[in-house]
Each structure stands twice: as C-alpha cells, then as structure tokens.
Write a structure and sequence with these properties.
By secondary structure, the protein is α+β, with helices and mostly antiparallel strands. The protein has two domains: 2-49; 69-146 and 160-200, no CATH class. It is 39% helix and 18% strand. The chain has four helices and four strands. It has a four-stranded antiparallel beta sheet. Helix 1 runs antiparallel to helix 2. The longest helix has 25 residues, at 25-49.
C-alpha cells in the first residue's frame, strides 16, 4: 500500500513538473507555485510521518548533538600478498554505501560467525567484481552503466578511491572500527584509534 502511495506521489510530482513548461507566462508562474507548494507539503508529510516517499525523504541525518568523537566502521580489501586496499564506495552498488556501513556496524555483530562469513563472501565478490570491471572498462559502479558520467550522485557525496584501480585480486576483507576525534588537528583531532573487528579470508 505504501509503495502505491509513493508511486502516486512521484507521478503527481513529475506531472506537475512537466506542466510548468506549458502555457503562457502567467499560467507557468501559477503552475510553478503549485509545484513548490506540492513539494513543500509532501516533504513536510514525509518528515512528520518519518516515512520516505522517494524523492521525498524523512532524512533523519542529524538526530542529536555530536560528542567530541565518533566511531564508525570501515572496510578494507586484502589482496593475495596481504596488502590492504581502500574500496571505492561505488563498488558496493546496488547496495547503498551508507546503509551498508550502518548494517555492518549495527547488524553484523548480531550474526553467528558462519552468517558473518556468508555476508563477507558476498561483499568480497562485489568488491572483486567492481575491481575487475574498473580495470577492464574503467567503470566501477553499477548505477552508471546507462548514463555514465550523467548518472545522479548519491545524496551524500563520498571521495572516489579508484582510479588508480588495485591490480591484485582481492581475496579477503577486514572490517575496522575507527574513532575520529572531532576537534581541530592542533587540539588532537583526527583518527585516534583503529580496531580490527572482523576479518574474512
């Protein structure tokens, strides 16, 4: 039911947007006003209901005041020589990078070791497939297969780790917890601790 409502809201948004291009200047102005009012109401409704109705999101990104430090998960690939490599955030597509890190931090520790290894095996396959694709085609992600550089970015921008693309095949994953002190570097800010939480080979 919620998916049907979301589809109707999106269809109405697109239809109202297309109508702003037709008619004389007076009609276009009133149609733009209607589109803006519709967007404001639906955005407010998504936030109030705390339910995403794409492209209208509740976006609970900053729900509390930050402390002096924050701890987050990072993933590194390991090649056959044992060297670690940063993994380009696009390698996880069609999984969302931020959602994946949240799942790793909150849900992965709840799994049995066998379940963790099964999840890691899938993630390693995604990372290696992306590395192979990047080396052969110069394309890392999955979403840009049709529109290439015209593909819309994620709403949170992340630095691209590749190129250069690692040349050695990935054979393992390491998951770390990194603690970042939010003070300025002159007051001791920066990554202060890196703990290995899990390794898959």
């Amino acid at each position: 039911m919620l998916n049907a409502v979301a589809a109707l809201v999106f269809a109405a948004f697109v239809l109202l947007g297309l109508r702003t291009w037709t008619g004389d200047a007076g009609r276009r102005r009133s149609r733009v006003s209607l589109l803006l009012a519709f967007t404001a109401v639906v955005s407010f409704g998504a936030g109030l209901a705390q339910r995403d109705t794409w492209p209208f999101s509740s976006w609970p990104l900053a729900a509390s005041a930050p402390g002096r430090s924050v701890t987050y998960s990072t993933i590194a690939a390991v090649d056959a020589r044992g060297a670690e490599h940063a993994i380009d955030y696009r390698a996880w597509q069609p999984l969302g990078f931020d959602e994946l890190l949240s799942w790793i931090q909150l849900e992965l520790p709840k799994l049995t070791r066998g379940e963790q290894d099964e999840a890691a095996r899938h993630l390693l396959a995604l990372a290696e497939a992306a590395r192979t694709r990047a080396a052969a085609e110069g394309r890392v992600g999955y979403f840009d297969r049709l529109l290439g550089p015209l593909t819309a970015p994620d709403f949170l921008l992340h630095p691209r780790s590749w190129p250069p693309t690692p040349t050695e095949r990935f054979v393992g994953l390491r998951i770390y917890s990194e603690t970042l002190v939010l003070d300025a570097p002159s007051r001791g800010g920066g990554v202060s601790e890196r703990v290995l939480d899990y390794e898959y080979r």
